[in-house]
Fold:
Amino acid sequence: MRSIIALILTTCLLNSCSVSETEKALESTSEGTISISVEESFKPFIDQELKVFASSFPKAKIKVQYKSEIECFKDFAQDSTRMIFVTRGLDKREQAHYKNQLGFAPTFGVLAYNAIAVVVHQKAKDSIFTLQDLHDRLIGKNTQQVVMDGNHLTGIVRFLKDSLVKEDKLGKNVMAANGSKEVMEYLKNNPNAIGFVGMNWIGDHYDPSQASNRRQLKMAKVECTLCAEKGLFASPSQATISLGQYSLSLPIYYILKENAPGLGSGLLNFMSLERGQLIFRRAFLVPAKMGFQKRNGLIN
Structure:
């Protein structure tokens, strides 16, 4: 009797192990569950990417959290987060650190290009800015109220600090809103302020909420520093980003922690190929993996 019970218990344990191993083996490029973290300003178009991916691969479950860029990198350092979407890649020190820690270096690259829109009220007196104008406002030399998208180091805040503020400090006239949506609401109620948000929060002409925002707000024009002809200004668009005419363009990076094909690789493949790249294009961003024609035009 004892030998029969022992045999039954052994069989159950073997079956349990077998099931556990099978469950682990279920993950593939189109099936399984992973967690990702995304820079908050990317939410509108990443939501669309994930929606279409889920409809194509119903056995895939992507758990997404939207937060500041610095928090995304903190998540990436944890075992639970497989992939992040931010505005920069890994530097050499970070690559070496992860290779030491994981035994392999994470992969990263650019999926598309976005831009930081300088947003003002429709009734604003100033809607054309040089980079020096923006610098003076960010450091408080010009005391016009400035609002940005977070108390923590978001991709937009980091980019503005690196490219415009540099060695100076942000002025007391600069305030942080709780995300991009709150920046827009603040500007509606404060016509004398200027704000910085991702272009994807105001530049999508098919989005009803963004169209509603543009009835009260507009994107300002910024000095073109790369143009051969001096004195040119441009607002952010697919054309001005791709032609290098808009000075506050920034990349959309993926960073993936996988050393074998898994669900993260499947999501990356989807976003890098035609359907994923067309979603970026449909969101009025510039796809980085799919070429499309750029032509100069003359208007008489």
In short: Residues 28-113+250-287 form a domain with the D-Maltodextrin-Binding Protein; domain 2 fold (CATH 3.40.190.10). The chain has two domains: 28-113+250-287, 114-249. The chain has eleven helices and 13 strands.
